[in-house]
Amino acid sequence: MEEATEARGEARYPGPRSILRYLRIEQQNNEDGTVWARFPALPDLLDEGGFLRLGALAPMCDLVAGSLASVAVDPDWVATSDFKLHLAKPVKSGHVEAVCRPLRIGKNMVLSETRLRDDEGDNAGLAVVTFNRLPRRAGQPANMAQKTGHMRLRSKVEERRIPFDEYLGLRFQKDAAVIELDHHERIYNSFGSIQGGGMGSLLERAVSYAGYRLWKTPARTIDIHFSYTAQAREGPFRIEAEVIRAGKDDILCRVQLSDLGLEGRIAAIGTGIAVRIV
Question: Could you tell me the residue range of the domain that residue 244 belongs to?
């Protein structure tokens, strides 16, 4: 196995402090066009009920879908446009494995499906991700997609393990379901904006925070669906969750992320479902 390395002398992505490395993701690009990956359910990635957070799964789902899309459109580039992730069986230990396969490779977009399984082979979730194709401009380098091979993204010198909220740098408002954070290198993509999986991590947390504020007990986000509307590249960022439907043990939220450094421009908008942790 080998580490992801720099290409053509350009800055390496993911960087040494990227969330993709922090999660200890292993990835295999296969000759049949599918992409496999897995990562461990580490204690700092679990919620108050002891199960792996959806926000920890989102970066891996975005990574495998992005790898598949990059190979499919080479030498053009891609960017996440629509992201859906639905949890099935909760995972509390071991590893989560992902297998991503293409559903449609078109002139302007790539659509893929990722199946998640636990160590017992049971269904753990499903992600459906759409990427926009970005034609390579004259003078712009090719995307350097790795068509086949195995990578281990764990950093040689790993950051100290800390609670996931602290790792993401989240600041919670006490009087509303609102979270703010600064832009930082842990969530950068190769364009310098929030990467797709990192966006999923942030929106997921806002939904579970809305559940906590409603019930005064911890909540778990089990579904997230969002669309990118613009690059989130300046910061600080504001994430807001609005409860649309509230039940005894579940809620449906509208959620959005705004870039306060760009006059509050909305960078992502979507919906999420959270359940009460009992």
Answer: 19-276
Report pTM: 0.91
CA distance 273 to 221: 6
Which tokens in the block code for residue 262? 């760009």
Closest residue by Cα to residue 225 from 103, 99, 16, 58 = 58
Going by C-alpha positions, the residue among 143, 204, 98, 165 that lies closest to residue 8 is 143
The gap between the terminal CA atoms of the chain, to the nearest Å, is: 41
Calculate the dihedral angle through the C-alpha atoms of 175, 178, 183, 188, rounding to the nearest 10 degrees.
Answer: 150
Residue 256 φ/ψ, nearest 5 degrees = -145, 155
How is 11-30 classified by DSSP, letter by letter? Answer: PPSS-TT-HHHHTT-EEEE-
Mean pLDDT of the chain, nearest integer: 91
Summarised one tens digit per residue, pLDDT across range 212-257 is 999 999 999 999 999 999 999 999 999 999 999 999 999 999 999 9
How buried is 108 (Cβ within 10 angstroms: 0-12 exposed, 13-18 middle, 19+ buried)? exposed
Q: Measured in whole angstroms, how far is the alpha carbon of residue 76 from the centre of its chain? A: 22
For residue range 60-90, what is the model confidence (pLDDT) as tens digits?
999 999 999 999 998 888 989 999 999 999 9
Is the residue at 155 inside a domain?
Answer: yes
CATH of the domain at 211: 3.10.129.10
